[in-house]
Structure formats: structure tokens, C-alpha cells
Design brief:
CATH class: Mainly Alpha
Number of helices: 17
Structural class: mainly alpha
Order of helices and strands: HHHHHHHHHHHHHHHHH
Shape: globular
Strand content: under 5%
Distance between the termini: 27 Å
Largest sheet: none
Radius of gyration: 22 Å
Helix content: over 70%
CATH topology: ABC transporter involved in vitamin B12 uptake, BtuC
């Protein structure tokens, strides 16, 4: 098989189509990036430059971390033809458990307080996810019903645990997880992270290119490969330089990348590797494409389903830790309606509700888009009700585009 794109494949196509074909770009994600750029420019004009200020973009990056962490797990859930409506309530319950342990159970100020409660919170998330997964996989109750019940049950458990009270203040070290206190790594460490990210991306792309050549698949021309890598590196390094322009209060010390963003980056890399390089990831997509065929080919679909919901539960606990640490309290309102934002982020990012299709990178793009909309509407001064109307319209539009895209693929 030739390692160069066939000329016959590009004859008769427009210039744009040829470029997209040569660069092997995802048209849906490309369109989403274009929409995101227009949204940013529009909000920046309306807010007189506030939206794209270093301060607002730094805050935006922190705000999107909570939804982004859970959206990476929602991709697996939806790809496997399930849904999880309980993520907001589970996130809030895990946050409440961690807050209660820190403030009311363990010694306040103990050096081990914060990380022990964090581990217990992650374990709680995993156990609840395992419970959901067991009922769905082995008792064969539809995921919609199980997680709808979870939405109600864990929200009620929040109130039963605290009798409606807000639990605060949390451990100082724990607050750093949410970007509070000194919850950012500074300029120098941010540059180190940026360089490491660029090196890893270059290595991953070149390794993928070598594998494709080894097995005789088409590869992009070298100029296209280098162009994409150069643009990616430029975006990453410019973003870091821009974030470093946001300083700590009453100083000229750059904050750099916030810890919640680092957590999101780590989760994203882990989930992307899990999907792309493991049997588990291949099994998830096989189940989404054709569950019966996957089962007949030897895939233990029940175990994979259980594992998917365990992962989702852990990610909800991580999001709960970030959210409560940022608020410096375990509040009963944490996670309210977050399930809608998480599902919207995954679907807007290209995850098909029909199953079998979705990417982690797309979910992150969807998170950035929906978080940008929320941030921009707040800066403009729109009411919460109007914000929900806009988010609902965007979600319906995203699903319609998914249906339209699926029909085009079939045709």
C-alpha cells in the first residue's frame, strides 16, 4: 500500500477538501475550533477586551477543569451506548464526604488530613461507580434508569449527610487542588510543562507515523506533519506565555498554570492513552459499534461496562475535590445540573449518542466551548435563566448536527 495520498483521491475536490485530506484533519473538530474562535472574538468585542484578558482566561481554565475531567469519562460511557445522569450528584456526594472527614472526623491541621480524605473520596467514587456498573451490567437495568435513580439518591444523601449545612473551611493544602491559596505552579514550572507537552506530542506523532509506515498505511507528507506540529507547539507555548501575564494579587509574580488545569491535563493524557493504546479502549469502541458482535468475539461486555462506570465514579470524585477545594467548602449545591454540562461537552465534542464514536480531545474542545459560553454570558450580565436557555439550544443543535453527520455517513 502506498505511503503517499493517491492523486485520484484529490482530483475534483475543492482546495479546502484537499488540504483537509492531506492534513488528515477531523472536519467536525475543525468546525468546532472555528466556532470557538468566533465565540471568543465576539465576547471579547462585547466585553471591551475583558473576555480575552489573562485574568479571565486563567479563571476560565480553572472553571472548565471540573466539567472537563468528567467529560473524558462520559465519552467512554456514551461510546459504549450508555448514559450517566448521576455524575453531578455523585460529584457533590464525594465532595461532601471529603469535607465532612476533613472538618468533623479527622484532626484539623494534621499533615495527613487532606490526602487521606482525598483517597477516601476517590474510593467512594469508585465504589458508587462500581455499584452503578454492576446493576447495569449484571442485573441488566438500563443505564438511564440506574443513573437517574443515582441522580436522586446521591443528591438526597448529600442532605442527609450534612442536614443541609455547608461544611467549611477545608484544609489549606486541599484548597490548592482548586487553584486557591498558592494553587498554581508559577512561570518557570509552567514553561517546563509546556516544553514537556510539546516534546510528548512530537514523539507521539512521529511514533504513530512510523507505525503507519511499518504496516503500509498512508501517511501525511512531511511538510504537513511538520506544519501541524509547529502550529500545535506555537499554540501551547503562546497560551503559557499569555497565562503567565496574570499575576498574584499585589505582586508581579506570574501565577502560571493552575493546579486544576494540571489535573485536567493529566486526566486527559491518561484517558487518551487508555482509549488508544489498551485492549480496554478497543473493547469500549467495539461494544459501541456492535455490542452483540463484540460479545460473540469474546469481549466480556459486562466486565467492560462495570469498569467504565468505575472510571466514571473516580473522575466524579476528582471533579468533586477540585470544585470543593476551589469553593473552600462542601456545599449541598455542588454538582447541581453538572450532568447536563458534562453530557453537552461530550456531545458537542463529537461523541455520538448512537455509540461507537467519540474522542477525548473532542470532549475537551466541547468543554472549552460550553465553558466559554457560560463565562461570556456572565461577563455580559445575562441571567442564569437566559444562560440555561442558550446552553439548551446549543445542546440540541449539537445533537442535530450529530444526527445529520450520521445520515451523511450512511448516504
Amino acid at each position: 500500500m502506498s505511503t503517499k495520498p493517491a492523486e485520484a483521491q484529490v482530483q475534483g475536490e475543492s482546495i479546502f477538501q484537499r488540504i483537509v485530506s492531506l492534513l488528515e484533519l477531523d472536519v467536525r473538530q475543525l468546525a468546532m475550533v472555528g466556532a470557538l474562535v468566533l465565540i471568543w472574538i465576539g465576547f471579547d468585542i462585547v466585553t471591551d477586551g475583558i473576555f480575552l484578558s489573562p485574568r479571565n482566561l486563567w479563571n476560565l481554565s480553572v472553571q472548565m477543569s471540573v466539567v472537563g475531567v468528567m467529560a473524558t469519562g462520559m465519552v467512554l460511557v456514551i461510546v459504549a451506548r450508555h448514559i450517566d445522569l448521576s455524575v453531578g450528584s455523585l460529584m457533590g456526594f464525594a465532595a461532601i464526604i471529603m469535607a465532612v472527614l476533613q472538618v468533623q472526623v479527622f484532626p484539623i491541621g494534621a499533615s495527613w488530613n487532606w490526602w487521606v480524605t482525598l483517597l477516601i473520596g476517590l474510593a467512594v467514587g469508585a465504589l458508587i461507580g462500581a455499584l452503578h456498573g454492576f446493576i447495569i451490567a449484571y442485573l441488566e437495568v438500563p443505564a438511564f434508569i440506574v443513573t437517574l435513580g443515582g441522580l436522586l439518591a446521591w443528591r438526597g444523601a448529600n442532605w442527609l449527610t450534612t442536614t443541609g449545612r455547608t461544611i467549611s473551611p477545608l484544609d489549606v493544602n486541599f484548597q490548592m487542588i482548586g487553584g486557591g491559596i498558592d494553587g498554581a505552579i508559577g512561570a518557570t514550572a509552567s514553561w517546563v510543562v509546556g516544553v514537556i507537552a510539546v516534546v510528548l506530542i512530537v514523539f507521539a506523532n512521529l511514533s504513530a507515523r512510523q507505525r503507519r509506515q511499518k504496516y503500509g498505511f498512508n501517511v501525511k507528507p512531511w511538510w504537513a506533519e511538520l506544519l501541524i506540529l509547529a502550529l500545535t507547539a506555537a499554540v501551547i507555548l503562546y497560551a503559557i506565555s499569555y497565562l503567565n501575564q496574570y499575576y498574584r494579587p499585589r505582586t508581579e509574580i506570574p501565577r502560571g498554570i493552575a493546579l486544576p488545569v494540571l489535573i485536567l491535563l493529566a486526566v486527559t493524557v491518561f484517558m487518551a492513552a487508555l482509549v488508544r493504546y489498551t485492549k480496554f479502549g478497543r473493547y469500549v469502541f467495539a461494544m459501541g459499534g456492535n455490542p452483540e458482535a463484540a460479545r460473540l468475539s469474546g469481549v466480556n461486555t459486562r466486565r467492560v461496562t462495570l469498569q467504565i462506570f468505575v472510571i466514571m465514579g473516580v473522575l466524579c470524585a476528582i471533579a468533586g475535590a477540585i470544585s470543593s477545594a476551589r469553593l473552600n467548602a462542601g456545599a449541598n449545591s455542588l454538582g447541581t445540573l453538572k450532568e447536563l454540562e458534562v453530557i453537552a461537552a461530550a456531545v458537542i465534542g463529537g461523541t455520538s449518542l448512537a455509540g461507537g464514536m467519540g474522542t477525548i480531545s473532542g470532549a475537551i474542545l466541547g468543554t472549552v466551548l460550553i465553558s466559554s459560553l457560560a463565562s461570556g454570558m456572565v461577563l455580559i450580565g445575562w441571567s442564569t435563566s437566559l444562560q440555561q436557555v442558550v446552553q439548551g439550544i446549543v445542546l440540541v443543535l449539537a445533537v442535530w448536527l450529530d444526527v445529520f453527520y450520521q445520515k451523511r455517513r450512511v448516504d
